Amino acid sequence: MAEQEAPQDFAATLARLEGLVTQLEAGDMSLEASLGAFEEGVRLAREAQRRLDDAELRLQALVEGPDGTLVSTAFEAPEMPGSSVGAGDEENDW
């Protein structure tokens, strides 16, 4: 599978990653193609995490306090529906 450049925005990165997961789950790819897709998926997942980390830092810098001044607070992202990353998904025993 040819290496592709990371999409320019988060939504495109996530969509490409979801497409790769769908292809891998179908099980119709050769070993070489599967490895290529997996490697690309790892790169995309890291890129998506980097973008989320950057967004978190930007949000921390922009939060306003009760008196209208900007304050830095910890940001906790809500759990995304359908997300099973790190949730002990027994279905994927790799």
Overall description:
The chain has helices spanning 10-26, 31-62. The protein is mainly α. It has a domain at 10-62. The two termini are 22 Å apart. Mean pLDDT is 79; it is low at 85-94.
Structural class: mainly alpha
Overall shape: elongated
The tally of beta strands, per DSSP, is 0
Order of helices and strands: HH
**Strand coverage percent:** under 5%
Helix content: 40-55%
How many H/I helices?
Answer: 2
Distance between the termini: 22 Å
Radius of gyration: 17 Å
- Residue windows where pLDDT falls under 50 for at least 5 positions: 85-94
Please give the largest β-sheet: none
Give the averaged pLDDT, no decimals: 79
What topology emerges from the helices and strands here?
Blueprint: H1 10-26, H2 31-62
Helix pairs in contact: 1-2
Summarize the structure.
With 94 residues, the protein is mainly alpha-helical.
Task: Please name the defining characteristics of this protein.
single chain; 94 residues; mainly alpha; 52% helix; elongated
